[in-house]
């Protein structure tokens, strides 16, 4: 299978190519491009010529421009395949023995864990030739949300039958590695798996490697490559989404009249306030994407106020909370657009003058509790030692291990067993980091059998759901009581 086509049109490698940069990720040198704050990542697994190929990096830059954080790891540890001076391919079989896709698969899993530890919520992967085998192995598990195989090598029909995530296969008409007949068998197998979304396309008049080993000066070669690139992007846009059901599940019926408190301006923000304004202890509750009019959030604010705190629930969305009126999982398809406007770091900045306003009223100690989206704002505040005296993160979104490393105030994290946004493995990483910071008091708890959002988006008629929520509320109160005095 490692014949001339696998080595045709070799690129001129250039370690300085691309608009990104190289740094270590998961122990591998990796070309990184795009915003490191993006919660959506795409891993590009190269062909045998490796991660220094200019056209491959150019494609990574294109993917990054669409809002993804793109990663091109060096799975060959500085040893990509190099053609002999006479152009012969005799050395390829020996090279492949030392650079198996099985090793690439083990390495890419570490890269994926590193991305998740940085707060990435959804990951796609595209593999080219050799790299397609690595990606199809990922697609057999729950490592990624979507896969693309471009002119695959070494991929078998049994591999395709085992795929568990949405997958697109882009084949070439002229390809002895994966000829059209084999690609059509892949298509038949995928079509039979009705539970898995799939897309198979055979590009006419192109050869193996055409997506990344084309001649940039040949217009006829550039055109089908760009068509393939667009197909990849469309696939990832449709299937690699942070806005999964968990983030939007059980949306509340907003009620601006809910709660026993009142709405007033505080530091320029409409805020639901409850409790004695003479209290010297104040708590900020920073809402999830559904905002400050959620009745269960206000009910929790009233509960906290009842034990002596002045509680403030600001409207950090300025009247533009995410609309949760599209069924049991909300209008999740609209979330990425909404999130581009409503960034948690903006809430952190808006909270600072709010904290100062509370201090000017005589408040001497302030705590903050963040839910989902709001947890990111709270952890940002917790990186300072002059805003908060204690923090609580409930089923956090967008929070990273690096965030936890930077925390400077006592912090409690309440996670859910069933949470693709901050799964238990990630929450345990938070715990490890915080435990190592012996100078900072911390508490981490993962609640069994509950889902993301359970503390404020529970069904008030479901006794079991109420019990779990109330347990979390008590943990919040205990933490605040212990650290705000």
The number of distinct β-strands equals: 16
Helical coverage, percent range: 25-40%
Major β-sheet annotation = 8 strands, mixed
* Strand line-up of the largest beta sheet: 1-2-4-3-5-6-7-8
Strand content: 15-25%
The average pLDDT is 91
Total DSSP helices: 16
What characteristic shape results from the CA principal axes? elongated
Q: Which stretches are low in confidence, meaning pLDDT under 50 for 5 or more residues running?
A: 326-330
The Cα radius of gyration reads 26 Å
Structural class: alpha/beta
Distance between the termini: 71 Å
What is the strand and helix layout of this fold?
Blueprint: H1 4-7, E1 21-25, E2 28-33, E3 40-45, H2 54-65, E4 69-73, H3 92-98, H4 101-117, E5 122-128, H5 130-138, E6 146-150, H6 157-161, E7 167-174, H7 180-192, E8 198-207, H8 219-239, H9 245-248, E9 262-266, E10 269-274, E11 281-286, H10 295-305, E12 310-314, H11 335-341, H12 344-360, E13 365-371, H13 373-381, E14 390-394, H14 401-405, E15 411-418, H15 424-436, E16 442-451, H16 463-483
Parallel strand pairs: 3-4, 3-5, 5-6, 6-7, 7-8, 11-12, 11-13, 13-14, 14-15, 15-16
Antiparallel strand pairs: 1-2, 2-4, 9-10, 10-12
Report on this model:
The protein is an alpha/beta fold and 485 residues long. Helix 4 crosses helix 5. Helix 5 links the parallel strand 5 and strand 6. The strands form 2 sheets. It has an 8-stranded mixed β-sheet, with helices on both faces. The chain has an 8-stranded mixed β-sheet with strand order 9-10-12-11-13-14-15-16, with helices on both faces. It is built from 16 helices and 16 strands. About 1% of the residues have low confidence.
């Amino acid at each position: 299978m490692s014949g001339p086509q696998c080595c045709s049109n070799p690129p001129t490698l250039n370690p300085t190519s691309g608009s990104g940069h190289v740094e270590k990720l998961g122990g591998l040198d990796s070309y990184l491009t795009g915003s490191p704050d993006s919660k959506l990542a795409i891993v590009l697994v190269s062909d045998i010529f490796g991660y220094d190929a200019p056209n491959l990096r150019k494609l990574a830059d294109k993917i990054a421009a669409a809002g993804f954080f793109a990663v091109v790891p060096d799975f060959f540890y500085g040893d990509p395949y190099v053609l002999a001076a006479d152009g012969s391919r005799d050395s390829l079989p020996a090279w492949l023995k030392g650079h198996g896709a099985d090793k690439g698969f083990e390495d890419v899993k570490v890269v994926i864990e590193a991305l998740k530890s940085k707060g990435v919520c959804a990951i796609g992967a595209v593999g080219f030739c050799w790299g397609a085998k690595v990606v199809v192995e990922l697609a057999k598990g729950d490592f990624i949300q979507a896969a693309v195989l471009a002119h695959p090598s070494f991929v078998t029909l049994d591999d395709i039958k085992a795929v568990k995530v949405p997958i697109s296969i882009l084949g070439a008409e002229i390809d002895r590695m994966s000829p059209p007949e084999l690609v059509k068998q892949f298509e038949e197998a995928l079509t039979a798996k009705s539970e898995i979304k799939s897309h198979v396309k055979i590009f006419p008049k192109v050869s193996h490697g055409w997506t990344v080993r084309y001649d940039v000066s040949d217009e006829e070669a550039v055109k089908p490559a760009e068509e393939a690139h667009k197909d990849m992007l469309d696939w990832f846009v449709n299937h690699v989404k942070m806005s999964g059901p968990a983030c939007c599940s059980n949306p509340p019926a907003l009620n601006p009249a809910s709660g026993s408190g009142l709405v007033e301006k505080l530091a320029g923000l409409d805020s639901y306030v409850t409790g004695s304004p003479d209290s010297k202890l104040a708590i900020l509750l920073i809402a999830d994407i559904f905002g400050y009019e959620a009745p269960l959030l206000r009910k929790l604010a009233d509960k906290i106020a009842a034990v002596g705190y002045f509680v403030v629930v600001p409207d950090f969305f300025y009247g533009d909370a995410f609309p949760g009126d599209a069924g049991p999982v909300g209008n999740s398809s609209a979330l990425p657009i909404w999130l581009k406007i409503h960034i948690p770091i903006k809430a952190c900045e808006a909270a600072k003058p709010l904290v100062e306003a509370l201090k000017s009223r005589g408040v001497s100690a302030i705590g903050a509790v963040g839910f989902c989206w709001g947890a990111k704002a709270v952890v940002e505040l917790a990186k300072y030692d002059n805003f908060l005296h204690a923090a609580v993160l409930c089923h956090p979104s967008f929070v990273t291990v690096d965030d936890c490393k930077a925390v400077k105030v006592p912090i409690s994290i309440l996670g859910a067993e069933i949470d693709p946004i901050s799964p238990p493995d990630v929450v345990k990483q938070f715990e490890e980091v915080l435990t190592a910071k012996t100078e900072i008091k911390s508490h981490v708890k993962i609640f069994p059998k509950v889902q993301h959002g359970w503390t404020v988006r529970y069904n008030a008629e479901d006794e079991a759901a109420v019990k779990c929520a109330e347990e979390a509320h008590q943990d919040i109160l205990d933490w605040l009581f212990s650290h705000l005095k």
